[in-house]
Structure formats: C-alpha cells, structure tokens
Amino acid sequence: MPFSDLILHLLNFAAPAFFMALLLASMARAMFGKSASARSFWAQVGLNLAVGVAVLFVGLWVTGRDGKMATYAALVVVCGSTQWFLSRR
How confident is the model at residue 61 (pLDDT cuts 50, 70, 90)? Predict the structure, then answer.
C-alpha cells in the first residue's frame, strides 16, 4: 500500500470523530455562549477529537472491524460526556 493510501485510510478512519468533535463544540457554543467553558473552541474540538479517535481505536481493537454501530454509539456517548464535562460551569 502506498503511503498516500495509508494517509487517506487514517483520515477516513478519524473523520467521524473529527466531525463529531466539531459539531459538539459548535453546538455547545451556540447553546451556552462563550461563557460555557474556560477552554477555547479549538481546545474543545481537540479534546473531543482525541477522545473520539481513542474510542474508534478501542472499537476497532475489540470488534476487529471498523465501522460497527456499537463503536459509533460509544463515540456519541463518550464525546457527549466529554463535552458535557468541558461545558460545566
């Protein structure tokens, strides 16, 4: 597999976590305003992305396949919990 294909596979693997992180941070900013968190918008996105990619890797390791619905459900729950923790006052 060429290196460019490896990079594309890794980007596609992390894409659900990235878009979930971006959506969660955007919605938290829209619902609660800037005072909802002491962290900046991009810090929230980065933390949610790191947690989301970790969940995807654990799901891949446990199930042996990428893209299982249980992994995506865990992604939603864990990223939502992380954003809730970041948005607490």
Answer: very high
